[in-house]
Hints:
Protein Transport Mog1p, Chain A, 19 strands
Amino acid sequence: MKKLVFLTVCLAVCGSLLTLLSCTGTGGQGDGLMSSSGRSSEVLVVCTESAWQGELGDSLRAVLEAPVVGLPRTEPMFRVSRVSPERFGPVYQKQRNILRFDVKEGADGSRLRVEKNKWARPQMCITLSAVSADSMASAFSMAQKQIVGYLMSGEMMRFQRAQRAQQDVHLSTLLQKNCALSMVFPEGFIYAVRRPDFCWLRKETKYWGQHVMVYTEPYVSESQFSPEYIAALRNRHTKQYVQGSADSSRAQIDDRFYPVTYVPCTFPNTPYAVEARGLWGLFGHPGDLMGGPFVSYTLLDTVYNRVVTVDGFLYAPSDPKRDLLRQVEAILKSLTVTDTVAVAGMKKGR
């Protein structure tokens, strides 16, 4: 059985309303669904050739293939391919991300339908219907933020599912004991630094390195969420702990060519959070040329009345960086405050 939830989004386009339908499969491993196929960040679009070559296709490519913010080289948000409705059979129905466009003449408005695990598991299937082919581009323009949000949410959940299956429980336990925070770290990460108010974990391979920093400080004022303060605090910690091959080189934010973006965002179990994305680099020695992208979340912890920052950065000089950074982002978004853990010297806020 599938559970349907109906919501109406009060946004008018061409005199019609966009209705959102959410449909989630509730079966378990024995539900008979096959495993989904496709690589990370791939989206299969199901639409006619005329729509693909017209205004709708142009809008689709502009939105879904837009450059990812904060990467040193241009990489698209998603890798998009297309199949016609006539060819959309069982082989294509196994894709992990499916975006379908359907014309329903006589309908009372545009409709966005979201179904998880419709034909395979895990899978995100999104169907946008409109009253005519001419109105489809307008309907997509209205729904594009929701569509991107659902696709990104699906990618994060798949990364987190894989990470939970390979979780190094020992690392998570140490983090809980150290600073009353819980995060899911897959196997391969090790502690580089572990202090009461700062932890740095890293995973190194022959070709790239993934890094996670966690640091906290007492909450004093709203200024701790300003871009200037967030940047200065990050630079202070990386200057102290993250160095290159030369003793004089230290990691710092590198905004010489691309500015860091700071955006208020939603984060579980906190009333306020700020996302930062940008580049880092090594400074202080001309021979150290390492650098790469980073993403961080600075949030208010109301349990212990403190500011918590979880920061992920990447060094991958020869590899695409989008999915490697999204893997780190999935770790950051697994953060929860463990208020039942007794940590020496810590008191709960009032």
